[in-house]
Each structure stands twice: as C-alpha cells, then as structure tokens.
Design a protein that fits this description.
Keywords: Cobalamin biosynthesis, Lyase, Pyridoxal phosphate. It catalyses: O-phospho-L-threonine + H(+) = (R)-1-aminopropan-2-yl phosphate + CO2. The chain has about 350 residues and is an alpha/beta fold. It contains 12 helices and 13 strands. The strands form 3 sheets. Strands 2-8-7-6-5-3-4 form a 7-stranded mixed beta sheet, with helices on both faces. Strands 9-10-13-12 form a 4-stranded antiparallel beta sheet, with helices on one face. The longest helix is centred in the last third of the chain and has 23 residues. The chain starts with 7 loop residues before the first helix and ends with a helix. Bound molecules: pyridoxal-5'-phosphate (PLP). The site of pyridoxal-5'-phosphate has 12 residues, from helix 4.
Length: about 350
C-alpha cells in the first residue's frame, strides 16, 4: 500500500493519540465538508442500498457529459480517480512510461502491477519544480508509450504553464504517445477549465478528474475519466468489475455539478485562506514555500534538526511529510488549506516550534 495523507487512524494508533483530537492537514479535502444537499440526498436515498446501482451508470455519465459539454461516450465514472488510474493503465498496457517526479504515487503502483518500464523525469528545484519544453526533448529521446502529468501537481501544488500544456498535448497527439492528465485538483482553480474541451479533437489524451477533494467526499468516492478515444472508453467500461461505484456516490455525482453556491463559497474560502497560509508560511525565514495554485502548500524546512512532522504532531496537527516522494527528502512537507481557526493554529504551533528549536 502506498503511503498517503489522511491516515489519521494509523498515526493515532502508532503514537497512542486519540484520533478525534488530531487536525488533519495531510489530506487535501475541502474543509467546508460535503454540500448539505449531498447529505440530504443520501439520507433520503437509504432505500437504494436494497437495489443494485445501474451497471452502466447512465444518469451519472449523462450528468458528467452535460457538465463538460462532451460526448456521453467519452466519459467513464469511477470509484474515485484512483480506480480510473488503474483502469486506464491496464487498458493502455504501456511498455514504457514516463513519470514526472515528485508526483502522485498511484501512477507508479498501477504501472508496476503490469510490468511497465518506468522512466523518471525529475522536476527539480532549479526549474521551480515545473515542467517545460525540455520534457518534449526527453520524450523524443526516450520514446515512451505513455506519460502521466498532474495539473496541478501533487505534492507541489504547482500548475504547469498552459502554453506548455498545449505543446505537450499536440506533441503527444502527433507522436501517438498516450497522455494522461490528472486534473484531480483543478476545480480549486476558479478560472481554469482544464483540457477536457480538447478531447473532441484528440485520441491520445486522457483526462482524470476527482470529486472527492473539492466536494469533500473522499469516503463516498467518485471520479471520472474523459477521452476522445471513445472505443477505448467503451473497452474500459466493458472490462471493469461491475458496480464499483456505490448507489449513493452515483446519485450524488448527478447533482454535484449544480452546486453553484457551494462552488462559489469554496473559491471564496480558498482565496482568503490560501493567501493567509501563503503569507504566513512565507514569513518564516526557516521555510522556503512554493506559491500554491490549489488547496495545499508545499514547502521545505531549511532548519537543520527540526522534524516538523513530529513537532507539529505534539500540537495535535498532522501534516504530510514528503520524504517518501521520489525526488524529495525529509526536508519537504505539504499542508492542506483548512478552515480559518485551523490554519491559525498551524501558524501558531509553527511559531512555537521554531522559537524553541
Ligand atoms: C493527484 C491525485 N490524483 C488522484 C488522487 C485520487 O483521488 P480519488 O480520491 O478521487 O481517488 C489523488 C488523491 O490524493 C491525487 O492527489
């Protein structure tokens, strides 16, 4: 099992702490909680547990296609984006894949399970942890069948330049390289529509989306995949285990796109609290912080002998250490943007940690 954020129970057990006293900065979930309509819908749909969900998830797929104004046949919903990372990997079955590091762990895990040769493409501090056109040169040298890229990236929270992304899409289409763009956090960027509009004119582009972070439903699980390769989407639907999305998640997915007030409130919260954490964290001379685009911040602790993860755990704050990400080490951390008082507690605790060594 890869190590992820949000492992409150595991950490509480390991350190003998009551799990309900920990504040979780390690998973990047919208602190507004799930929309009220979602909770009401689930309560009112309890009878659904007595029936199988539609094995083709027709209404859910229609809702996703309508929201993105794309072809119904271009869409496949899944039990979180995670199910679809595995589905698309198994379907494409690449011989050789390029992974940008640091990046989300499940791409590697999915590729390893089918024996793909994995070539790492390190994003380094010198290039601001951002990919640029040099990636295309590497693609032409290495000639992989497939590339994964997350926009914005996890754990860095950085959004690649849109012109660069356009060049990457065009290059991969021309060279017949499967490009899997993980837009799991893109809903947090109010002005960014991502690359779904491009699937109508491409065959090698696969877009992953997650609904678990923005709509705070990681326990319910819901994500989707969109691609112009509609034969491929049909094949993946055909091969998948039936009923992998539970009835509640399927029903909820039909209404989430209409949650305009919730979406606007989330953008408003993020604007102020992302700014708060960015300015407060940047003010610590002990830290180097990268400017966030989404609902989490990535930073390096430059003070030797300070183990921020353990120090903050003593304050009941769980942050994400990044030492298990390829290309990073124990100096790097990630924190989610939480609600105002939680963010203030984080900053106050960090002031104490740095004041006392
Ligand atoms: C970049 C990225 N993609 C996908 C996922 C998985 O999302 P889901 O909860 O929809 O399976 C995560 C979860 O942290 C993630 O960080």
């Amino acid at each position: 099992m890869s190590e992820h954020g949000g492992n409150i129970l595991g950490v509480a057990e390991q350190y003998g702490l009551p799990a309900n006293t920990l504040i979780d900065f390690s998973a990047n979930i919208n602190p507004q909680g799930a929309p009220e309509r979602v909770k009401a819908l689930i309560k009112n749909s309890l009878a659904d547990i007595e029936k199988y969900p539609d094995v083709e998830y027709r209404h859910l797929h229609q809702a996703i296609a309508k929201a993105h104004q794309c072809d119904y046949a271009a869409v496949m919903a899944g039990n979180g984006a995670t199910e679809l990372i595995y589905a698309v990997t198994r379907y494409l079955h690449p011989k050789r894949a390029l992974l940008l590091t640091p990046g989300f762990a499940e791409y590697r895990r999915a590729l390893q399970q089918i024996g793909t040769e994995i070539i790492d493409y390190p994003l380094t501090e010198e290039t601001g942890f951002q990919p640029d056109l040099r990636l295309l040169d590497t693609l032409s040298t290495i000639q992989p069948d497939c590339v994964f890229i997350a926009t914005p990236n996890n754990p860095t929270g950085l959004m690649p330049d849109s012109q660069f992304m356009q060049s990457l899409v065009e290059y991969c289409e021309k060279q017949r390289i499967w490009l899997i763009v993980d837009e799991s956090f893109i809903d947090f960027l109010p002005d960014n529509r991502g690359l779904i509009p491009q699937v109508a004119i491409t065959k090698h582009l696969y877009i992953l989306r997650s609904m678990t972070k923005f709509f705070a439903i990681p326990g319910l699980r819901l994500g989707y995949l969109v691609s112009g390769n509609t034969m491929g989407i049909a094949e993946m639907k055909n091969r998948r285990e039936p009923w992998s999305i539970n009835a509640f998640a399927a029903r909820v997915g039909e209404i989430l796109f209409d949650e305009h007030d919730y979406i606007a409130a989330t953008h408003q919260w993020l604007k102020s609290q992302q700014h708060y954490l960015w300015t407060q964290l940047s003010a610590f001379t002990e830290l180097t912080v990268w400017r966030p685009s989404a609902n989490f911040l990535f930073f390096r602790c430059n003070k030797l002998n300070v183990d921020l993860w353990h120090s903050l755990l003593k304050h009941q704050l769980l942050i994400r250490h990044c030492k298990n990400y390829a290309g990073l080490d124990e100096r790097y951390y990630r924190v989610a943007v939480c609600n105002e008082w939680e963010n203030q507690r984080l900053i106050a605790a960090m002031q104490q940690v740095f004041a006392h060594g």
